[in-house]
What we know:
Oligomer: single chain
Strand order of the largest sheet: 7-6-16-17-18-15-19
Number of strands: 22
CATH architecture of the largest domain: 3-Layer(bba) Sandwich
Largest sheet: 7 strands, mixed
Shape: globular
Amino acid sequence: MNMTVQTSVCIVGGGPAGMMLGFLLARAGTDVIVLEKHADFLRDFRGDTIHPSTLELMYELGLLEEFLARPHQEVRELGGKVGGETVQIADLTHLPTHCKFLALMPQWDFLSFILEQGGRYPGFQVKMQAEVTDLIEQDGRIAGVVARVPDGTIEIRAPLTVGADGRHSIVRERAGLQVMDMGAPMDVLWMRISRQPDDPADSLGHIEAGKMFVMINREEYWQCAFLIPKGAAEQVRSRGIERFREEVAALEPFLRDRLGELRDWRDVSLLTVKVDRLREWSRPGLLCIGDAAHAMSPVGGVGINLAIQDAVATANILAAKLQGQNVSDGDLKAVQRRREFPTRAMQRLQIAVQNEVIKRVLASSQPIKVPWPLKLMQQVPALRRIPARIIGMGFRPEHVRTPDVLVRRS
């Protein structure tokens, strides 16, 4: 099958940025097609932290109660162990938001929720198993995309194409947009380890000389991250899975009795950490947002929320223009102007943590001591509100400004 479809906006990528933007634009009366290359949203170890800034958007959309009815865990304080000492780092309970906590929810549940909400609007379409392979260029403008589908190819033609297809974006590659790579000193090994009723309740991090380990409480299991120096995955694997289990057990001895669940390296996933940003987020007829515009470090778990903020800002700036079919190149550049400061600020902070903390810890062979800023936070609890504000809300939280102009289908 080879066919051509016309729409007002074609969004490439069914992740948080693409799905949220598609929903908001359809809600404002614009016809949208979202293309997702996979058959479903079921991917392990994607961003699962829904921050207070995103929960506030759910409140503004009138969806918060329904959203929080989905299974999730709530985290009000962030802490960890440095050496043998427990420290508290962030206190979210003072944020000026309706939800003063992080919600831990599998990304596929979040995306499925947005899909359901968008499905109430006739202009919202999501095509699964539609892998974009190229852009359509016409008279110097991007006029749509070519996608591979199970029974052939399809052309989606649209006045506006949005690349929201992540850090390995085919859209930004085909568009020839220049990527600035800021580097990252680490990669992450992700794994699931079962959780027992008498395990600690809190999610936590653990720092020792040469090692960093993060555990996120997912009720039935621990979602664990083992940080390694950049490019060291093969070296770690070469030492064998048994040695790796011993390294994990040395950090968290209570896990020792169940580390046999890591049967081989197929039970451990590698996240290659990238921190980059496009110099220009747009071309005529094309805009990139989310990780396609700026790949974030996992530091702070802010990537999914920054992507959603991009989507809200994009809808706020473009929705009315799309209704009048008069989106200009300047309007696309306005999205970058709006979102570049919070992106740069967050990346600058992440890079500082990577270089000044993570890189030094992973290279260290000496016992790790609690640094003085963390000691001060233990003595003055109010200081924990500062990292809570940065992690929970970011540097420029967006608010929904677009109307709900259509009558929803029941």
